[in-house]
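Reading a protein record of the kind used here takes only a little practice. Think of the row as the fold of the chain written in a discrete alphabet. With that in mind, consider the following protein and its fold in token form:
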Amino acid sequence: MKPLPLVVAALILAFGIWRWRKTSTEQKLIGLVVIAGLTVYGSGQIHFDLEHTIERLGDTLGKWTYVLVGAMTFLETGAFLSFVAPGEFTILFGGLVAGQGKINVIILIGVVWLCAVLGDSTSFYLGRRLGRGWLLRHGERVRITEERLSQVERFYDKHGGITVFIGRFVGLLRALGPFIAGASKMEYRRFLPYDILGGGLWGTMLVLLGYIFWRSFDRLKTIVGQGFLALGTLIAVVVGVVWAVRFFRVPENRAKTSAWLDEQERKPLARPFVRAVRAAWRWIVGPIIRTLLPYLRFLWGRITPGGLGLELTTLLAVAAVGSFAYFGLWMLIADDPRPGMDFDTLRRVDDLRNTTAVDVAKTVTWLGSFPVTAWITISTTAFLLARKRFAEGLPLIPAFAITYIGVHVAKAASDRPRPLYALVDTAGSAYPSGHAAYAVAWTACAVAVAHAIPGMVRRTLFVGLAIGLTAAIGLSRVYLRAHWLTDVLGGAGLGAAAFALCGVISLVFAFLRHNRRGQVTADPARTTVT
């Protein structure tokens, strides 16, 4: 006998009796079916070997597991399927199949990550398309009113980014969050970086849990349950802290609390506790908060919408995707040095080759060579430093140096052979493509100097052309048979991660420098402890 299903069945039954008159006939029938199933399962009459079933299903599906997991991950938010089939189980199942060796765990993580972002983006644009009018017309059953929707819109305007990130780990928010974000007119450029980070962390965590614990599904279920319980507790604590900060920010609330503590201190039984609390606040908690508050404000500013906060979050998202491409593809080719996708791509490229296109590709690929990209990086740095744009200029050269080191470390470690019959001179290992990695400097430099170009349209066009050039350089390496496609993707990932991480460090140091200046000029009256 299994008590948990029986307890759940009893709770559903009690809730159904309480809401009997307000429940439709269809809902009553569904509830009775669920109660019957839980009762039969909890009685122990049905014996279901889940691990054996998963193993057999993995043997049957094979490579089709990618399609199943990817589709369910997309439909979970893209079609609100999480209300009937939570995506966690499907992703865990994919990790279990990868643990059995039937599919590749790196490819699976990439599929889950991509499909999670695509599903959220679809839900976001559905919300943008249908709008708040649709929510008001069909939201009465779940008590969505004009007033509540306005509150949600104001909340997303202030805290939409962190809500999108955290919502990926909470079932109800994961299903509705992207739709509400779109309906509340949240900008997609603000939505996407947080969604990439949340979707990547959520999907990678679940895949790796299934991959690591594929031999013990019961233990895996316990770990996942405890993890989400801990996350829920953490969210509750954070919400409580935010509420307390806002409550005590009001002078009247502080006065009322102080008066209440004075009243409790006059009671003999409560006096020791109240004095201990006040002593802890004065000598321990208060000094710690005053010390950490500027840094906590900086952190909150970086993970919530706003100019610099959005910039930093975007850089983190780029670094996350780039690092996954670089290290993930490295692991992939270590397991299979010549994956089928590389040969398929090379065959299609061979069909498009002609003399004129080869000459153009050789010119384009030269723009991604080390001397050219190094000169572009140094010149852009000098230009930015001359204009005293230190936050944009200083990270460029260190990032380019890290890219150079990362290219040669991976080449020496992977020792991957290049494609045969290259149309340009090549030397050394294939992975990663140095040209593709160095070419990211064109995009990074364009982004760094875009502030000097007047007009949003012109800046967007300027950066877009740089991104197009970076992509063209990478594709030219495949077209000229100098590299496999995975070499180009891994090199581009390395360059993107290096420049993004150096940009993050530069922004942090710029804040710390600004914060120290603010401490020097602070009003002494505001820092006096009473």
Q: What stands out?
A: The chain has 21 helices and no strands.
